[in-house]
Amino acid sequence: MTFEFHQKVLFKHCDPAGIVFFPRYFEMINDCVETYFDQVLCKPFEEIHPVGAVPTAQIQTRFSAPSRHGDHLIFRMKITKIGRSSAEYSVVASCAQEERLTSVATLVHVDSKGGPTAWPADIRKKLEAFRDDAL
Amino acid sequence: MTFEFHQKVLFKHCDPAGIVFFPRYFEMINDCVETYFDQVLCKPFEEIHPVGAVPTAQIQTRFSAPSRHGDHLIFRMKITKIGRSSAEYSVVASCAQEERLTSVATLVHVDSKGGPTAWPADIRKKLEAFRDDAL
Amino acid sequence: MTFEFHQKVLFKHCDPAGIVFFPRYFEMINDCVETYFDQVLCKPFEEIHPVGAVPTAQIQTRFSAPSRHGDHLIFRMKITKIGRSSAEYSVVASCAQEERLTSVATLVHVDSKGGPTAWPADIRKKLEAFRDDAL
Amino acid sequence: MTFEFHQKVLFKHCDPAGIVFFPRYFEMINDCVETYFDQVLCKPFEEIHPVGAVPTAQIQTRFSAPSRHGDHLIFRMKITKIGRSSAEYSVVASCAQEERLTSVATLVHVDSKGGPTAWPADIRKKLEAFRDDAL
Q1: Which candidate in B30, B46, B67, B107 is best for mutational testing of the D interface (most D CBs within 10 A)?
Q2: CATH architecture type of domain D3-130
Q3: What is the pLDDT of residues B103-126, one digit of tens each?
Q4: pLDDT tens, C90-100?
Q5: Which of A71, A107, D8, D77 is the most buried (most CB within 10 A)?
């Protein structure tokens, strides 16, 4: 299954060159993941905190074409790997049929002290169901 | 040669978990690169715009340990490759002796229409001198 | 008439104290105004730029209670005054029945050189209709 | 006494109109206040949290002229009133001799539950000394 997250490019996202300032893309990606946890995993970030957290351990991103103010972006996210306390996702953002960025990242589930801790059973089950649908 | 950029972790950088929100790291990296262009290449971004721009084409980042409010970070940046219209840099941020993140990114020099265009001779010469010092 | 803009408090909005970092409220207010121009005035910001712009000339804000991660905020915006090239709006954000902030601001319509310039007739007409409904 | 905080206008601060996006000014003001607490009051924000916090209760700002990428801004801050658990400050930002914004805001010292609580004696003493120098 693929999770879709829609985001219009707003004034706040754009730089003097009139295109999205690249750190703003990472806010969009974070919003996409936060919405996925809320709507698909039924485990919104506000419930995970402050018992734990899901920090990003690594992220690789390629920006294939610039996005301009007013563009309607669709972020398509998939879960690609699930570890004991980690998960890898890929996300591709596009406008109409043009790809704008593709990113692969690893999240880690940590406890309140920041140490990696196994996914709770209910989250793990939903992550796996979502990933398997994507195969 | 290695360019050093200092950044204290401020209130604005931190999330409810009390650590740096990862998109904020990309703002810090952008500030580091902007300061490098200003102080080392003597070509501040405000002079490059609006004749051109130096958008980020790709960036890979690994977050090795969290940074907390008040930490004094040092970003150490090197130029690792220079193409006709592109440059690759690596940057490692650490606090005391602990590494916090390491990132490798590619910048592209574009003209006012967004198309890749060769580095001006003076910038290229300085990029090369800076890179060779790093070897 | 009152324009309503909904915004869930997301992870990116919150500070180490677990509440909305106040500069983020101004991004939300800007998003609210941008959406109002798009949906009510049918004049999205991306069409106003680069012919002109609508910078904020002044803004007064009182934060009556903190907002926490996960809160569902409703911003209720009204046009309160219309000048030749300016407009004043008020916006109140609340969660459930609790007020979180109230703000009054003045926008100025400027041309591409930044000088104040009269509202285009179509925008002015809609601003007035919207304001009159609020009386 | 007046506290001075220097901030060059960076790429990240600017919008498609090439001027500072106004919510970014509030980040700069917050950075100014945070640096004042650190350098003048010797009570950095990272020591106040998580025992307490100093949220902004209200802020009024007038933007007198736009700031452009590369401008060197100086924020001049004064403490104008001190209450049991609150403090009012004014800040004026200018570039060369041109005023860019003037802001007046009220901070409240709160405990870990968010309730107003008297300034610790050492902070209060320094706030008063700083204010009296300004008279």
Answers
A1: B46
A2: Roll (3.10)
A3: 999 999 999 888 999 999 999 999
A4: 999 999 999 99
A5: D77
